[in-house]
Amino acid sequence: MAIRRSTLFPAFVLAAGLCASVASAVAQPIKVGWLSSLTGPLSSAALAENEGVKLAVEEINARGGILGRQIELLTRDTAGDPTKAVNFAQQLAFSDKVSFVIGPVNSGEGLAATPILARAGVPNLVIGAVDELIDPKKYPRAFRMINTNAQWISSANSYAIDVLKKKKVAIIADTSGYGTSSAKTATEMLERIGIKPVYSVLVDNNKTDLTDEMTKARNAGAEVVMPWSAATGLLARLLNARGEMGWDVPVVGHPALMAAQIRKLLNKPEYWEKTYAAGYVSTTFLPDGKLPARTQALVDKMRPRLGGGEIDVLFWWIALGYDTVMMIEHAVKTAGSTDPAAIQKVMEATKNHAGVYGTYSYSPTERNGFPDSGMMMNVASTFKDGSFKPAPR
After folding, report:
1. Hey, CA dihedral for 261, 267, 270, 275, is it positive or negative?
2. DSSP string spanning 177-239?
3. Is domain 29-149+303-375 given the CATH code 3.40.50.2300 in the classification?
4. Can you name the CATH fold of 152-287+377-382?
5. In this structure, what is the dihedral angle of CA atoms 330, 336, 338, 339, given to the nearest 10 degrees?
């Protein structure tokens, strides 16, 4: 029996339309929000992380994207301002309808923005270190890529007390959300092992001279100064104050103490001596003078992008930014989609996922993915291509 063309044609058109619609949906880019403080006093880490993020996006897109979908990176400069971070988080989640958000970079911004992303149900790769940013019940789709603040503080405390044998501690932190939280955590962790700081103070990031604070720390009998701030300008002024005072007290603390920006801000190069900071196995030179293989491979890819000479930013920030995007690729490929619930399940089941900055593991009850074994104390003045020699034991 002949089939009438007029009957077949509408069905054909409908089927073709459905196929086109499905193909169009599959081809839609994967929108990734990137909350980054590219300007402002806390920009040093964000600028380096941004280089890693951009490289990873370019590499993934060059090989065809993820499941045939390109990554569309929506970068928003929060300038280190929690209010801006909140506004941009709302925009990315509710207007731009992103599938993931990386950041915010700084913990103070994260404390304000993370609850918004959680309410929107958007998977969030956390790169702020304070404990309050992670909670499997309150923020079930927030997974931390960076180490915890407690890992930084614990590493520094252990080095100051167990290796340097210093018992009289001065804590100097900034007045940001991160600095305030860190000073409290550092004090609590020291007091748990029977050490009460002899001096503790919070300082505005923009204070131009820290001589008064350092003088009070010395007068209090401090044997080690432990600063907790990501503001490189503030940390450089602290080291300058120590140097101008002629005080040879060791400085042990936040990894930003090793930033290249500090080297440029020091009044004398020797003011960087006796400065030790919590760093990473991935960016610590091995006894043979080489970096771990995955780190070296990324260094080789990044060097031409950064001018071809010495890499003058902290390389772990680049590696961390790179790993966040590669984790998105892992999650989407494994889930087979960008469905938030499926992404959450994949992340909770991720074990020993090898990146450059670290190897990550999560579970239904654990959202901190970076292992203690990835931590390493470094000597700040050994800066080379953003990596360091291990601190003497």
Report:
1. negative
2. HHHHHHHHHHHHHHHHTT---SEEEEE-TT-S--HHHHHHHHHTT-SEEEEE---HHHHHHHH
3. yes
4. Rossmann fold (3.40.50)
5. -130
Q: How many residues does the chain have?
A: 393
Residue 155 contacts residue 379 (beta carbons within 8 Å): no
pLDDT of 226-277, one tens digit each? Answer: 999 988 999 999 999 999 999 999 999 999 999 988 989 999 999 999 999 9
Domains 29-149+303-375 and 152-287+377-382 share a fold: yes
* Residue-wise pLDDT tens digits, 36-82: 999 987 788 899 999 999 999 999 999 999 999 999 999 999 999 99
Domain extents for the chain? Answer: 29-149+303-375, 152-287+377-382
- First-to-last CA distance in the chain? 90
Instruction: Give the tens place of pLDDT for each residue, 339-390.
Output: 999 999 999 999 999 999 999 999 999 999 999 999 999 999 999 999 999 9
Sequence-ordered list of residues with C-beta below 8 angstroms from that of 248, at least 6 positions apart, any chain: 274
Kind and range of the H or E run holding 169: strand 169-174
